[in-house]
Amino acid sequence: MISTEASKISKAWDGIAINFDRYVTPTANWILAKTAISLAGLRSGMHFLDVASGSGALSLPAARLGAKVLAVDISPVMIERLKARADEEGLSNLKGQVMDGHHLDLNDNTFDIAGSQFGVMLFPNFQRGLSELVRITRPGGTVFLVNFGPIQKVEFLNVFIGAIQEAVPGFKGLSPEAPPLPFQISEEDVLQKKMEEAGLRNVKVNPVVHKLSFRSGREMWNWVTSSNPIATQMISGLDDKQKNQVVKILEEKMEERSKGQEPAILEVAVNIGIGEKVK
Q: Where in this chain does the record put each Methyltransferase type domain (predicted)?
């Protein structure tokens, strides 16, 4: 049975899933996924589990590589969109199931590699989610997590919040001292320690710069507000006039950033943690 909290989380992601699939999945996230699965050593024929998969930013590149992929997500709509994308590409080696990553309905020691891209980092009980990844991975197998780095080095979020603050004086934004769930493991040493505590060895945290491109302020607005329920909540108190003003400010910022040469590039600090399950 899905808990009340899990049900709320599921509904929140269902609410943005269509736009998430439209604006977020088919972007530079696929490029980042290729980097992650390469570092993890994923190869054709391997059994791979993608937890908190969304509509396939990580699992689709893995399936294109020839891996046997199971993607799980708490949102039924996300899984519907993932299956639709797999069908469109003829990827019969990619399956999707609705599942709470805190309680995976999967056998121990099943997968060669298990990973999550911008997924498990969002879990209310991060350590539980990570422990589940480790549990279902075979001894000697690999577990990896792709996560945001420090909030100060996530440009899209800082630019977006800055635009809201310019349009709506008094808007507080996010505090680095009390960051939201996406940044609970943003420091390299914290991520490494958490992975080691979960029973992984030879843990290595690979810092990379993830580059997002936006051709307009409207495109950035669509991407950010579709990327996470936190962003949806952030703008929930804005009226239409304020929202339009934020988009106008974002247009100016993107034009300034691109210097007239589309697209504008915003850098995101990302940490890819990789570890081996003890045999």
A: 49-144
- Angle at CA of residue 3, ends 272 and 125, nearest 5°: 30
Is 89:55 a contact under the CB 8 Å cutoff? Answer: no
Q: Are 116 and 50 in contact (CB under 8 A)?
A: yes
Report CA Rg, the chain.
18
Residues 213-241, mean pLDDT to the nearest whole number: 93
CB atoms within 10 A of CB 240: 7
What whole-number percentage of the chain has pLDDT above 90?
87
In our burial notation (b when 16+ CB lie closer than 10 A, e otherwise), range 196-230 reads eebbbeebebeebebebbbebbebbbbbbbbbbbe
Sequence-ordered strand ranges (E) for 14-166? 47-51, 68-73, 94-98, 111-117, 137-148
The answer to whether the predicted template modeling score (pTM) of the entire model surpasses 0.90 is yes
Enter the DSSP assignment of 185: T
87-110: string of b/e by CB count within 10 Å (b at 16+)? eeeebebbbbebbbbbebebeeeb
Distance of CA 239 to the CA centre of its chain: 28
Q: Which of 53, 93, 44, 92 is nearest to 71 (CA)?
A: 53
Domains and CATH numbers, the chain: 4-277 (3.40.50.150)
Contacts of 117 (CB under 8 A, 6+ apart): 29, 32, 33, 36, 50, 57, 58, 146
- What one-character-per-residue DSSP string does 246-268 give? HHHHHHHHHHHHHTTSSPEEEEE
Mean pLDDT estimate for the chain: 95
Instruction: State the CB neighbour count (10 A cutoff) for residue 254.
Output: 23
